[in-house]
Amino acid sequence: NPAPEPAGVREFEAAARERLDPVHYDYFAGGAGDEITLRANESAFGRLALLPRVLRGVEKPELGITLPGGSASMPVLVAPTAFHCLADPEGERATARAAATTETIMIVSLASTVAVEDVAAAAPGARLWFQLFVQPDMAFTETLVRRAEAAGCGALVVTVDAPVFGTRGRDERNGFHDLPGGLRCENMRDGDRIRPIVFSPAISWDHIARLTEITSLPIVLKGVLHPSDARTALDHGVSALIVSNHGGRQLDTVPATVDVLPEIAAAVGGAAPVLLDGGVRRGTDVLKALALGASAVAVGRPVVWGLGADGERGAVRVLELLRAEVEEALALCGVASVHDLEPGMVRRLRRPW
Ligand code: FNR
């Protein structure tokens, strides 16, 4: 009997877990500290209820969105995650092909195991953005920006929730600190050496201002949780924000992203698109985030689970499952377009079910 096809993101996680080295599974799955925020991201969606409208739906709801860095066929993007070659030998090449097939945006991690140029070459037509941890050596940061531009990336996603690298208990216990067997962070190649990725608490708003000067690519700030920072970001010429807590992998006990989304959306007041990542596992989660003010969401682990379970095909299936779930939930909510969701369609439950 062939194994049954996974019918949801959580089933893909189980399938990936079967196939992956347990140490690598833990690297992908784990979070910082007591993993309180990791769990909260998912459980927060469970405390929100959707309140559908009736008798006003359409045959085929509109799912497409347009963002400063390009358009996507659905409001579900691929969040930047490191080390895809640990999940599938084709690594980020497979992920990029899956993103091309599903016509959505893939944010390529600075810590990808395939160089951004090779990711782009492997997936013609893929809509790529490049994620950056600003390196204190600004000359090297600038070479990274030029490489991303030359590879055709549509935006720079600057991750700002990693002034230091969050300690993850699972990796500590497993002694997982380095990439195995010939794998490298290929974007960190500098001549014939590989630089270590530097996480620096000295990175400041001045660096963001500098980035806007050296590139005409839109800058998307990833990892904003405080409404004041959202406003400061707008003052610095940032084109979009991603409300993110790095999937619970940096500071533990920060709030679930969907719980701070309304405050951030209010602070931004429509001046720039606000995206969200963290804990999105179902189409209904996507609708809740959009209703509460997000223009789109991004998924990190779900794509890794698809990749780990079945390579490129698995990543495609995860993204297509989410699309189908979004489509069905929109129809069931009587909503014609992802742009028509509004806060009144979400109720916060007093007691979780
Ligand atoms: C990440 N994330 C991340 N973010 C980033 O800006 N650069 C990176 O290199 C990585 N690497 C990374 C590796 C792994 C294994 C995970 C799980 C996450 C964070 C990622 O972009 C995103 O914020 C979260 O993954 C979103 O949460 P979910 O969808 O995984 O719940």
TrEMBL record:
InterPro entries for this protein:
Aldolase_TIM, Alpha-hydoxy_acid_DH_FMN, FMN-dep_DH, FMN_HAD, FMN_hydac_DH_AS
Any one GO CC term of the record: cytoplasm
| Family annotation (CDD domains) | alpha_hydroxyacid_oxid_FMN
Residues reported to bind glyoxylate: Y27, R168, H246, R249
Q: Which cofactors does this gene product need?
A: FMN
Where in the numbering of this chain does the FMN hydroxy acid dehydrogenase domain appear?
A: 1-351
Active site per UniProt: H246
Pfam families on file: FMN_dh
Per UniProt, FMN binds at: 80-82, 109, 131, 159, 222, 244, 277-281, 300-301
The superkingdom of the source organism is Bacteria
What UniProt keywords are attached to this protein's entry? Flavoprotein, FMN, Oxidoreductase
Q: Name one GO molecular function term.
A: FMN binding
Q: Could you say which protein family the record assigns here?
A: Belongs to the FMN-dependent alpha-hydroxy acid dehydrogenase family.
Kindly provide the name given to this protein in its UniProt entry.
Alpha-hydroxy-acid oxidizing protein
